[in-house]
Amino acid sequence: MSAKKDKEQVALDALSSLCKRRGFIFQSSEIYGGINGFWDYGPLGCELKRNIRDAWWRDVVQAREDVVGLDASIIMHPRVWEASGHVGGFADPMVDCRACKKRFKADALCEEQGAKLERTENGFALPDGIKCTACGSDDLTEPRAFNLMFKTYVGPVEDDSAVAYLRPETAQGIFAQFANVLATSRQKVPFGIAQVGKAFRNEINPRNYTFRSREFEQMELEFFVKPGTDGEWHEYWVTERMKWYESIGLPKQTLERYVYTEDELAHYASACVDVMYRFPFGAQELEGIAARGDFDLSRHQEYSHKSMEYFDAESNKKYVPHVVEPSAGVDRIALAILCEAYCEEFVPRAGVEGGVRSAEPGAQPPDGYERRTVMKFAPRMAPVKVAVFPLLKNKPPLVEKAREFFVRLQGCWPTFWDAVGAIGRRYRRQDEIGTPFGVTIDFQTLEDGTVTLRSRDTMEQVRLDMDGLLERLHAELQ
Ligand code: GAP
């Protein structure tokens, strides 16, 4: 393994080990040996994902007048996927090794060996010299298309007429319901329909932890616009979406835009930009924002024989709206937030003067210092917002007072109760799950009603009474 790969692996290994230890992410069906490409989110992971979905829904749907929501079924009429092009075209070219029977994505296999998959009249071809990366054999099949949709059967008979698919994207549910939403929502073009939900792709090579999974969640917006205004709306949504990523704690310098060139665009698209995050394994896509013209609605019009036209009262004309589609993945955003939040630092032990120092993996802390792992989530994304600690668990008046604070805070934010262990260890446990604030109730609280509020990032401690505490937390946690 190269030094760079080594570092990437250390970073992902440290993160995935914390995620398992602290209940963010588990391997699906782990007790049976797991299943490749599927993941479960534990108590903290599901809160993180909920925060991502809620932030998106709040900002993209509820805070706007021109976007409405939809919750379509996962299994749809199979004609949907013929119209969308997924039955005919949603395929990766694959190569099998005849010697060791391993299967590879043809483009990835070529890329790994510094080559490029060749396009031919009928599909694809491997350039000369490409070998199996598992056993070294050059006895490889020609690239063959492999459809990524999961198939199932609807009803009791498993024949061709009962075939259906688990949706590979949420977008088609929106296009298929375009006319119903238009008729019932009193929206006028330009307007959008948003949906959050599971999508399924039988990925050949699930990898990079949860980054490429076989079951994942999408947050998609189809924003319908007047033909000819695609360019300006596309720019608008790229700008909005970049700002949104910053608002959930991914700093500008960790984000990149990948602008598609003419020959990378689908034949119907006029523009596409990917929002990329700098993961430990390289900059990779979180979201694609595409101007798709009238391709999707026109195809459904053609296949369903139902009109997808919009009557524009201003111009007194009918047209099939064009669409700009910002399409994001919840799991990839969760992974980016986890990568960004993960931090190891050396902090001075109690009573030692000195500031926080950054810690390289494996390095020993200097004298008087200890290592802490801290998840520096933006407060909006933190699964738990506040933790409450009675200084001692065997002093009933302290515990009773602390419960008063706990109940009050729990009414406002997800709050954690921890009465077990030395106070320093309790702080560290909360640091590891990224709780922005800790509130300690001690003997002074019984006398004057003040508590200690500790900030996760600065470790600064201040004394506040209940009103001061609520005011500060409301300001910091929004
Ligand atoms: N409707 C357009 C569409 O589905 P896409 O680029 O294939 O476009 C959109 O997917 C987003 O869905 C991606 O940017 C990514 O965040 C997420 N996504 C796609 N495939 C994924 C996978 N195998 N695992 C996790 N997330 C995935």
Short description:
The chain is built from 14 helices and 26 strands.
Question: What does this molecule look like?
Answer:
The protein has 478 residues and is of the alpha+beta class. It contains 14 helices and 26 strands. The chain has a seven-stranded mixed beta sheet, with helices on both faces. Helix 2 (43-62) crosses helix 10. The structure holds glycyl-adenosine-5'-phosphate.
The chain-level structural class is alpha+beta
**Regions with little confidence, pLDDT below 50 for 5+ residues:** none
Gross morphology is globular
- Bound heterogens, unique: glycyl-adenosine-5'-phosphate
Based on CA atoms alone, the radius of gyration comes out at 26 Å
Largest sheet descriptor = 7 strands, mixed
Q: Compute the average pLDDT.
A: 94
Main sheet strand line-up: 3-11-12-18-15-14-13
The CA-CA distance between the termini, in Å, is 45 Å
SS elements, strand count = 26
Sheet-strand content, in percent, reads 25-35%
Number of helices: 14
Task: Give the helix proportion (percent range).
Answer: 25-40%
